[in-house]
Amino acid sequence: MKKIKQTKVKVMFPGFMDLSKRKSENSLSIEVRRGDELLGNLLMGRGSVEWWPKGNKTNSVKKGWRAFVKILEEQMK
C-alpha cells in the first residue's frame, strides 16, 4: 500500500500580532511542507504577501493583498 504524503503547515506565531499598523515590522511566516519536503514559505505583512519557493533565497513572488485575493478567488473556482 502506497503511503500518502500529508501537507503540513507550520506557523511561526508569537501570540497576538497586528499586521495592519503603519510602520509595523511585524510579519507572519508560514512554512508549508509535503511530508518532509519543504514546498516554500509564505510571508504575510501589512502591505503584501510573499511566496518563497523551496531553495529560493533571492527571488520571491510578491503580491499586494488585492492581487493575492484575486489569485485565490480565481484558483478556488
Describe what you observe in this structure.
This protein has 77 residues and is mostly beta strands. It has a domain at 27-77. 14% of the residues lie in helices and 40% in strands. It is built from one helix and five strands. The protein has one helix at residues 65-75, and strands spanning 7-12, 28-34, 37-44, 48-53, 61-64. β4 (48-53) and β5 (61-64) form a beta hairpin. It is globular.
Give a quick set of tags describing it:
single chain, 77 residues, mainly beta, five-stranded antiparallel sheet, 5 strands, globular
How do the strands and helices of this protein lay out in sequence?
Blueprint: E1 7-12, E2 28-34, E3 37-44, E4 48-53, E5 61-64, H1 65-75
Antiparallel strand pairs: 1-2, 2-3, 3-4, 4-5
User: Which segments are poorly predicted (pLDDT under 50) over 5 or more consecutive residues?
Assistant: none
Helix content: 10-25%
Outline: globular
Q: Care to count the β-strands?
A: 5
| Structural class label | mainly beta
Strand content: 35-45%
The rounded Rg comes to 15 Å
Brief write-up:
Helices cover 14% and strands 40% of the residues. It is mostly beta strands and 77 residues long.
